[in-house]
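TL;DR need structure tokens for one chain.
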Amino acid sequence: MAISKAIIPAGGYGTRFLPITKVIPKEMLPIGDKPVIHYIIDELFSAGITEILILIGANRECLVEYLSEFPGITFKRVPHARGVADNIRHAKQFTKDEPFIVAFSDNVFFNGNPTKEMLEDYNHKKLPVICATEVPKSDANKYGIITQKNNYVIKINEKPANPKSGLAGFGRFILSPDIFDLINDNNEKPCLSETLNKLDKLRVIKTKAIAFDTGSKEGLFKASSFSFCPS
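>> reply
TL;DR here they are.
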């Protein structure tokens, strides 16, 4: 069965962009002439995804209005921002018993499509996949850092104080339905990295695309600059 569904967690408060995120959700901040969320939607549709559930928090009316004419997109309101893993828990009815894509709302890619890359790997191995990219070691303590062997994850170390590498998980995953049991077994505020570490097997693909973390002011600026002057 081809994977056709994706979820985008978009329930965070955007505290790093205050005060502007009091009135504009961070997913609607611009990169060039389009908001962040538009780039993610384009990536998913281009990879063959036909159904997208966006898990939204409060004050996302302009996001819903902006995407109202896009086909195949539905929304579900999440009452509290308790992290990405908890957001994913709210998508169980949408995904049913099918594998699905998770696309973080603050990771954008140019000159490539990491969703396509993950799907190619999944179609061959039929195993969950995490997308990764190299980040400077000076920034590695901001990410889940991956230890791997032969493209299989050994461990994801979330925001390590002394990272041993710069191979960071970067906001794209293919997950199977059993992830919901692992999330529920965790705790009231589960950590996604801890949950992924419980999987029997997890593949990692290092994307060929150029990755930007638009969840920070610097990352958003770099992504916008690249959209105007790619180099």
